[in-house]
Amino acid sequence: MRIIGTGSARPSKVVTNSMLENFLDTSDEWIVTRTGIHERRVISSENLEDLAATAARNAMENAGITSEDVDFIICSNVVNEYVTPGLGCVIQGMIGATCPTMDINCACTGFIYALDVAEAYLATKKDMRNILIVCAEEPARMMNWHDRSSCILFGDAAGAVVVTKGDDLKAIRVSTHCKVEALYQKRKLQPTPFITKEEVDTEGVVMNGQDVFKLAVSSSIKDIDKVLTMAGMTADEIDLYVLHQANVRIIESIRHFVNQDKSKFPFNLDRYGNTSSASIPALLDDLNRGNQLKTGEMLLLSAFGAGFTTGACILRWSM
Ligand code: UT7
C-alpha cells in the first residue's frame, strides 16, 4: 500500500477556550495546561457530508485522480445525521464515484483500521487500484455541553487519503480490548408497541478521563513497541511520530517512552482539539501541504479510542 494523496476540511466556526468560559466553569489556563488545546473548530451551519466530500475531493486532486479512478471508499465515522445509509454512500454520490463503499466505526482509531482494511483489499483483489479513505467526524454533536471534563476536548473535521498498490506499509497492528465503561454514549431508539425493557439515554458521551488517559498511554506504548519489532526498526529510525491528537500530555508520555526529540512529534491539537478518527489524516494533510514530509521518511502512526480500540503502523512516505 502507498499513500498518493491527502485532503482535509474543517468547519469555519472557531471556538476558543475563552468562549467556553462563558457557559462552563472552566478557564483557558486549565484547558491549556491539562490538554494543550487553545481552540477547536465546531460545526455550525455546515453538514458533515460537505466537509467529507471536500476532504475527499482534495485528496483525489492531490493524488491526480478523478472519482472514476476510485475503486472503493472506506468511510470512518462515529456519528452523523444519517442513521442510514452509511456516510460513505452519501460521499460517493457527492463526489460522483460509482464504486462500492463501506463505513466503519472504530472511534478515534478508525483511520488505522481503515488502512488495515485497504491493505488487505489491495493485496487480495486484482482489479483494485485506488481506495479512498475518508474519516469524517462531528464529536461535538455527541457531547454534553454542560460536562466540562469532556466537551472541551473535541472538535469536528474530515481527513482523507487515497491509497494504491505499493510497499510503503512496513507494519500494522490493530486491537480491541472491551472497556465500554471508559468511554461511551447510549441513546434511546424509536419506541415500538412491543418494547418492555427500560432504555437509557446518556444525553452525551460518558467518559472516565483518567481511565482513558492511562489506557491511551499504555496501549499506544505497546502498539508502538510491537510495530517497531514487526518492521525490524528502532525508535531512532522513525522520522516522524504522527499520533492521534487527543491530549498533549498523552503525546508527551508516549514521547518520553520512545525517548525521541519533540521535533519528531508534529502537532495541531492546539488549534483543532481531538477530531476523533479525522485527526491523523487531517494532520497528515497539513504536513503534506506544508511541505513538511520528505520522500523516503518513515512515519509511525498511532491512535486509540472508545472500545477500547487501538492501532499503529509504520509507513514510508513516498509522495
Ligand atoms: O480519543 C479519546 C478521547 N478521550 C481522551 O483523550 C481523554 C483522556 N483524558 C484526558 O485527557 C484527561 O483525563 C482530562 C483532560 C479529561 C482531564 O484531565 P485530568 O488531569 O485527568 O483531570 P481530572 O479528571 O483529574 O480532574 C482534575 C480536576 C477535577 O476537580 P477536583 O475534583 O480536583 O476538584 C475536575 O472536576 O479538574 C476538574 N476539571 C476541570 N476544571 C476546569 C475537569 N474538567 C475541567 C475543566 N475546567 N474543563
UniProtKB/TrEMBL annotation:
Annotated coiled-coil segments of the chain: none
Enzyme class, spelled out: transferase
GO molecular function: 3-oxoacyl-[acyl-carrier-protein] synthase activity; beta-ketoacyl-acyl-carrier-protein synthase III activity
Matches recorded under Pfam families: ACP_syn_III, ACP_syn_III_C
Domain Beta-ketoacyl-[acyl-carrier-protein] synthase III C-terminal per the UniProt entry, residue ranges: 229-317
Domain Beta-ketoacyl-[acyl-carrier-protein] synthase III N-terminal: 102-172
EC number(s) reported in the record: 2.3.1.180
Keyword Transmembrane appears in the UniProt entry: no
Keyword Acyltransferase on entry: yes
Family: Belongs to the thiolase-like superfamily. FabH family.
Protein name according to UniProt: Beta-ketoacyl-ACP synthase 3
Organism: Candidatus Coprenecus avistercoris
